[in-house]
Amino acid sequence: MSLQKNSGPVRRFVKLMRFAAWLQNIPNKVTPPPFRLIQIGSAFWQSRALYVVALLDVASALGEESLPVETIASLVSAQPDAIYRLLRMLAAMGIFEEVSPRVFRNNALSEYLREDNPKSVRAMILMHNSIEMSQPWYEQLEQGVRSGDVPFQLAHGCELFDYMDDNAEFDALFARAMDSVEALMGDSFATDFDWGRFNRIIDVGGSKGSKSLTILKRHSHLTALVLDRPQVIQTAVSYWTGKETPDLLSRLSYQAGDIFESVPNAENDKDIYLLSAVLHGMADENCVKVLRNLAHAASGTGACIALMELVVPDFKADFSSAAFDMQMFMATRGKERTLPDWQKLFDQSGCALEEVVSLRSLGKIMVLRQR
């Protein structure tokens, strides 16, 4: 029996995304090619302006008010004319609104830069535009394309997760950014997949367990076990204290471990492993290693594995998939994969693909069982 839910809304979402991709291509059709290339070539101006306004936390300073630039500048320790020119550019892009000369307020886009917004993407903006993540794009992308080496490693002398292990501040920013992914993906992973058939989620690489909690809120019989790196687990328990009810948190537990060594054993076919955007950051051989560990841990129990990942079209990939894939190329030895790419990994790891569940988001859930 299929684990797909809300098939009608999911189909409508897919059609809407196709229409959005068509709209996104309109500037290429109506803008003179030389000017369009210059627009794209200078797009980093926009990302840097967005980064600085997020770094200054202007959206939080504005809150619900409309404020003159002098007041904004005072609140964020900036120079008034400079903050005016920055906000004017962003308002022209549709981020913030100039309500009268030199007076600005938040709008529908800038609201998501506020720290007090539960769906804030500020941490994601800060992480992607940090020196750690920007330097490889600016300095090492050409060399990476020529040699096939990872630009992040060329820039920093080590792999991303090794760098994070040695740089606590960036590690914390990365974790905050990952926690905000739900603001991008929504909660369709919890509503468009039939989690109600299971009793326990084993959330592999689940960070603080935000996705598990979203699912647990909808299914009172479920429990979840989150497995992640020791430094992530150390702060996970205290992170939710006061933010979620004790009854809900009592159904969530944590275990520190190394997914390349082993994962917790399943007990029966009411267990389900969840890996959300974990494997796309890994080289093929490491994906196979993790999948084999999962297959071994599920052996003889009938437990299934839910991989939530992008599935890139075989031909004419949409911009989002292609852009995320380049981010993977820049930062890791992983990549965003097509369904045939995924199938090759499953064949090598003793896993069988049973179903691909579509979601009202960019990702899909691939359901696997031990072969």
Descriptive tags:
single chain; 371 residues; alpha/beta; seven-stranded mixed β-sheet; three-stranded antiparallel β-sheet; 12 strands; 15% strand
Give the distance, in angstroms, between the N- and C-terminal Cα atoms: 18 Å
Helix content: 40-55%
The outline comes out as: globular
Kindly report the average pLDDT value: 95
Give the biggest sheet: 7 strands, mixed
Please report the total strand number as a whole number.
12
Describe the 3D structure:
The protein has 371 residues and is α/β, with parallel strands linked by helices. The protein is 51% helix and 15% strand. The protein has a seven-stranded mixed beta sheet with strand order 6-5-4-7-8-12-11, with helices on both faces. The protein has a three-stranded antiparallel beta sheet with strand order 1-3-2. It has a two-stranded parallel sheet with strand order 9-10. Strand 7, helix 18 and strand 8 form a beta-alpha-beta unit. Helix 4 crosses helix 7, helix 4 packs across helix 8 and helix 6 crosses helix 7. The radius of gyration is 22 Å and the shape is globular.
